[in-house]
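Practice set, problem 2.
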Amino acid sequence: MTIFQFPRFSPKAAKIWEEIPVEFQEILLDNVLCSHCRDAVRIVDYSGSVVSGDVLLKGKCAICGHDVARLVEGS
């Protein structure tokens, strides 16, 4: 049985992430490149922080469990 964690966001990242419509959030979460799987996968057990005004999601590949990241560019 796999247990997933709730996302952890810095306050600033949470504010930016909440401004993105839920349907686009799901698209972003489902399209993260995994270098191990060599394909687009879903990110799980992720956290969010702000880097140069953009949200950086860091987490695990839902398929193989390797570390993955996705940069969500602002504006």
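Problem 2, part (b): a different protein.
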Amino acid sequence: MRKVKTFEGKRRTFDTDKSTELARRSFGQFGDPAGYEETLYQTKQGLYFVVGVGGPDSPYPAQDLKPVTKDEAAAFEA
């Protein structure tokens, strides 16, 4: 997945194929309409982002990417 997003006032490209997967977490059970999965990535430039996918009632009814800060990334891994 590759997306261009504005983060910290700059347009940046986030690409899962060129980034390192750091962590993964799931919420809910398989088939749960509110369940979802998030994967944390780090770019070669040191930026972090989360890719989420889930059911129709989840925060990710369609696969989406959101940039996160270093502190949010640290909390994700904890």
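Answer key, part (b): The longest strand covers residues 20-27. The chain has one helix and six strands.
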